[in-house]
Amino acid sequence: MQTPKVLFICLGNICRSPTAEAVFKARAAAAALDVHVESAGTSGWHVGEPPDPRSVEAGQARGYSFAGQASRKVIRADFGLFDHILAMDMKNVAALKEICPESYLARIKLFLDYAPHAKTREVPDPYYGGGDGFARVLDLIEQASDGLIAALKQ
Questions:
Q1: What is the pTM of this model?
Q2: What structural domains does the chain harbor?
Q3: Residues 12-37: what's their mean pLDDT?
Q4: Among residues 16, 54, 72, 107, which one is catalytic?
Q5: Can 52 be counted among the known catalytic residues?
């Protein structure tokens, strides 16, 4: 079986998707799941920048590493490279579908579809909110990561 490739997507690739990348990498490793994981944004506003310090602080407090991460914008080639393209919200799903070749549309999903017990389908953007928003994002991403790992192991 080939190594699954997962791409997490949010708007700027500095809060939610880098957090998903860090969390999923750690949880997949703990579950002995060989997977290739990256993250990207639908906007290019922060290309080359590291993740938001508030995301890093919240994630590191739970033991996650953001080492080596830098924001990048999703490109058309990503749709052919990644098996799972998981967006944090419906706006990003729509933005992805606008640039995705038709043959790869089925690869685009909401990440929280893997967290059926979450009370929301979208990971809220914590960028303009308070610190508790980053903890909420982590809670949701941890749930969805566990669900995705279970799905990939089937």
A1: 0.97
A2: 5-153 (3.40.50.2300)
A3: 98
A4: 16
A5: no
